[in-house]
């Protein structure tokens, strides 16, 4: 069994004291323990931003890629070795700005992996500019007169893009977040959790208090996560009350289900064996 | 009578099956024991416009198309108007006079034969689709050339499902009979079945050669986004992935493809992507990540003319510097330029091995001309396929210290474990990192890690001494050395033959590895050259600049062409003569 101790790394944590990332980090470690996964069998893929440092703080396999590209790197890993549990950690700018294009496609493709987005509604590591999830009017160094366009709704987008597991968490409720992670990782297919993650240094608007006052749990309100219409309605809810929890969940074939020819094959090992291409050359004669 | 020395051009609108009929004819030549070169010239459109496919077939090895053609199959008038002047004296044009009206003035030549065959009527009478006109014409061509129609019939049988094959066989027969009845013995060119050395040969395009090699080399993931002229690699691999237990997928972007193959490489499978210039721009950041994470996907850059969208379906060598420098920062890489379909196969095998052994990105740089031209070559030797992945820890890591993915070793190469290996946690990082893969910003460690990555170059350079990083073709010494890289090989070889007809005037230095640059070898060879001529399909002679950069010498002459078209051998020989 993995313990919290096993998951510790020698790296000194450099997140600002009180940062919402701590809640996500702890929730993930606890989820790994609860799931009983072996460290060698899990790969953490992270993007670039404060969130990207996750790779330094969890002692499992790690691939710290480039800004916005958590999804395709994770997909490559999963395609190479479907036995691995692949969990991506992206930032809101990372995923919803730079990597936005991959997001919708990952929902359609439905590879069996998990994406956790640290949604602090700000670019943290670059010292506090607005992102696509910053609220309209949000003043930052890059938007001194306030953000002009309305915010982007990742949960609703995930739903209309055919996401098979769409959830939202709050890093201020670590245990709830942990159970979302457990379910997401168990889910067979692409699971996404958008996580409210207060940035105590740059997001003066969406603070712990701001979130705490607003969030409520879908499961406590009798939400039916198999009802997509209801899920969409809930996804559009924003204001004094903001839902967290699982919006929608469905079982549908994963990408690998449509690849019967590689099922059960150890592709990394097969890459060491030359392949005879005579059959193809015959067609060229 | 000229026997077994023929250039045929099939021209018509896009969608008229031009490429297909050119290739069918080429295969019929191949099966008769001839050596064949086939190349397509097409525009970036789906219907209309003008496409043409050139087939050159001879008894001796042919390396490229010729400047002139002997027989034209014209499926539209434009073909006649555009190509009549390329026609050799005594050449012929097969066309349908019911469809194409051409006046004496328009033709403005009386030294060629106009061969009317009622292509449309025959196709209609056979109740076939209009596209069958080209098969009727193929039949007529075979009759004119006095070639064995049975060979073509078999080619058609192998290419199509039985019903369609029979339709096409009937169509060629009608064309054949018509030409035999009306134009018996009037054409001065003949094709004849010839004896070969018995070795099996294939008619293969550069892109297919790369794809075949990838399969041979154990590539298990191919991810790409369509971009001419690289797309036929995707088409080919997608059509055979189930046979070879490969995952082949079209991603949402080239960025996705690049990051995906990098991820796959980290997780232990050989992976590849291909694109052209625009897509390569999008991949650039990912290539740097490969350098930093010491992963090893193979990236194929099939060039077309730029800048920007440029001439999408034509050829160029304008991206050499780009391939060498793509992405920020400094890291070792391989840039390998095959010159023909044989090298495309064997160098791709090498690219997979070297990329993995040295944990660096390998870029295979080719172009439309190589990628989409077919050539006969001996069947690839499967016994030569050796897979060398460097030091790999499989199943369980048994080391006493913690596994370090980026361990600093004497030669800079860290033994690889893949995620899933027991007792090893495999961590890599696009940020500068320590040996364990954790982020670092320490100046001393940063220098050490940068040095570690470049240290690998020493071992790589040493290994490359056993590889043909350059090739010297023709006489060992000659007054003039022609220097080129990539797909100009065919035209240069042919031009050299022309120039050396009476005496050994020139030889030809083909640079195959552009990074690491084979400075010493080039230096040695150039020592015995009095004069140098660089031949390139680009505007600024990028190879010349590399030679100057690495050897501190200027080449004497540059012959450059950047109109999207490959060099033709005779005019290239002429241009070389002019500068000497
Ligand atoms: C291609 C590219 N563009 C820009 C950057 C600079 N950059 C570093 S982190 C970051 C954004 C971070 O915001 P987010 O993804 O929300 O992560 P956070 O820091 O908030 O966790 C940017 C733009 C980069 N590294 N790469
Ligand atoms: S800047 Fe914001 S997101 Fe980054 S570590 Fe500090 S509090 Fe956390
Ligand atoms: Mg952010």
Describe the structure.
The complex is a heterodimer of chains A (285) and B (580). With 285 residues, chain A is of the alpha/beta class. Chain A has helices at residues 4-7, 21-35, 54-57, 70-80, 92-98, 100-109, 154-160, 174-186, 208-214, 228-235, 267-270, 278-282; strands at 42-46, 61-64, 85-91, 113-119, 165-170, 190-196, 215-217, 242-249. Chain A has a single domain (20-284), classed as Thiamin diphosphate (ThDP)-binding fold, Pyr/PP domains (Rossmann fold, 3-Layer(aba) Sandwich). Chain A has twelve helices and eight strands. Chain A has an eight-stranded mixed beta sheet with strand order 2-1-3-4-6-5-8-7, sandwiched between helices. In chain A, α2 (21-35) packs across α8 (174-186) and α5 (92-98) crosses α6. The relative contact order of chain A is 0.13. The mean pLDDT of chain A is 98. In chain B, α16 links the parallel β21 (480-485) and β22. Chain B has four domains: 2-200, Pyruvate-ferredoxin Oxidoreductase, domain 3 (3-Layer(aba) Sandwich), CATH 3.40.920.10; 203-378, 3-Layer(aba) Sandwich (Rossmann fold); 391-467, no CATH class; 470-579, Rossmann fold (3-Layer(aba) Sandwich). The radius of gyration of chain B is 26 Å and the shape is globular. Chain B is built from 19 helices and 25 strands. Chains A and B meet through β2, α4, α6, α11 and α12 of A and β9, α8, β10, α10 and α11 of B. Iron/sulfur cluster binds at residues 15-16, 19, 21, 50, 120, 124, 199-202 of chain A.
Question: TL;DR?
Answer:
The complex is a heterodimer of chains A (285) and B (580). Chain A is α/β, with parallel strands linked by helices. Chain A is built from twelve helices and eight strands.
